[in-house]
Amino acid sequence: MMVLDIRLLVGALLVCMSFGAFAQVDEAEVENIDELKAPLYEPFIERYILDEIKSLRQGQQAMKAEVAEKVATAKLESSDRALRYTADTTNNIFYIITAAASMLVLLGWKSLRDIRDNVESITEKRVETLTEEYAKRLSVIEEALKERSEQIVAAQQDISNSTIIHSLWMRAGLEKTEQEKINIYDQILEINPNDVEALTYKADTLLDIDQDSWALSLTNQAIECDSEYAMAYWQKACAEAKLELYSEAIGDIQKALDLSRTLQDELLTESYFESLKERDDFKALTAV
């Protein structure tokens, strides 16, 4: 029992000595920490920064090398394209020269002088052809304009003549002497020699002054101008009746009646047919 107590006492003493030692060590470390002026982790931060700078420098060098490589590649491709373009252009020029030379040989041209002469000749021929073509067109246009101008002038002249003739017919209706009427009819015939009405009325006036042969001639002329004009046959029959050409007169009366049935009413009142009224063929005309 006593021995056990001694062991417990020794153990207690050892524990106290251990705590005392630890206390002394901790106090020493605390004093050492208090004596520190800078943090212990600063070297680690500096190391980290140096590693990052090194990494950035290595990345920059790698990028520089990559850019240099790409620039060199681009320059090489540009040079290749320039060389290909130069080669293609040179080949095309030679092809053109060869084709031109072949054309010259085929056309028989031996020099630039021949080319110039042939080009001038072709140009002159083309210009001459175009000139002739346009000259023909201008000639056609001039002919058309000339014809149109003549038509306009003729129309204006016809209008003027129609106005004059109308006024002359009005004067003829107012004149009382046969000679003045004949003069007016002559003026109308000067303007229009083929005026069948003027010829017929002049023949009628000549019958009134006993110019029977002249009147017959004028009626024949009127019939030549217009074979469908009934009054011309009527006046011719009057002249033939006065000249005692009775059969011819009956025939012309029949033609006049065939062309105009309105003359049937004047058949018995016409004074120049008095010598025909006893003839059977005339009576046959009046009986129709």
UniProtKB/TrEMBL annotation:
Stored InterPro entries: TPR-like_helical_dom_sf, TPR_rpt
Signal peptide limits: 1-23
Stretches of the chain forming a coiled coil according to its record: none
Keyword terms, alphabetized: Signal
Protein name: Tetratricopeptide repeat protein
